[in-house]
Amino acid sequence: MPVVAALLAAGLLLSGCTVTSGPRTPTTTATLAPGAFSTLDEAGVEQIKASKTARLDMRSGTLEKSAVKVGAGEVFGPEVNTKGAGKIDLTIVGPTGEITAQTDRLRFLSGKTRTDFSSVTYFLTAGSAEELSELIRDGVKRYGIDNESAENWITSTERDPGGKSDFSIQPGYATGLLVNYDLRYDGSKDVQVIIVHVMPVP
């Protein structure tokens, strides 16, 4: 019997038959169609991660849960994290302009009784105080973030580059959305962080 079993196995190999453990899960590689907007269901999050592109529709002034396929009772949307795998090209289309950035983290905050998200949050990083200042001034120019508030903080940091500072710059409204830069500066670290909150205008 062992000889018969061996011959049968050899016959299977010669005939090209193979044994598989089950169906393979396809890899998501689809890119976002031109003009389309991202969703935040499982398939949408996988598409964002695979394509490194996210485009959110806030032309009405809000990001509605139903529009991105998130349940009405959810307090949070999914966190999209691509740290170590490359940054996402993010576009948020507002009523009067666009917010664009490269980021590796996206967060969405809502509430059980809200139909929309109260905040879309993403993270910007800078490798130096100088680069951080450039990012802040870019936010002033593009989104209407308060220039005086920004320059006062930059000046104080230049006087004490080794210090620490958590500071929220007065927001801008140029895109028809509230854009807030929440600074996390630590001169002893190699990477500085801006937490950007995009919210409906109150």
Architecture overview:
This protein has 202 residues and is of the alpha+beta class. The chain has one domain. The protein is built from four helices and nine strands. A hairpin with a 4-residue loop joins strand 3 (88-93) and strand 4 (98-103). Helix 3 runs antiparallel to helix 4.
Largest sheet: 6 strands, antiparallel
Number of strands: 9
Distance between the termini: 81 Å
Structure class = alpha+beta
| Mean of pLDDT | 88
Tell me the radius of gyration.
24 Å
Quickly describe the structure.
This protein is an alpha+beta fold. It has helices at residues 2-14, 42-51, 129-143, 147-159; strands at residues 53-57, 80-81, 88-93, 98-103, 105-109, 119-126, 164-168, 178-186, 192-199.
Features of the shown structure:
three-stranded mixed β-sheet; disordered N terminus; alpha+beta; globular; 9 strands; single chain
Secondary structure layout plus pairing:
Blueprint: H1 2-14, H2 42-51, E1 53-57, E2 80-81, E3 88-93, E4 98-103, E5 105-109, E6 119-126, H3 129-143, H4 147-159, E7 164-168, E8 178-186, E9 192-199
Helix pairs in contact: 3-4
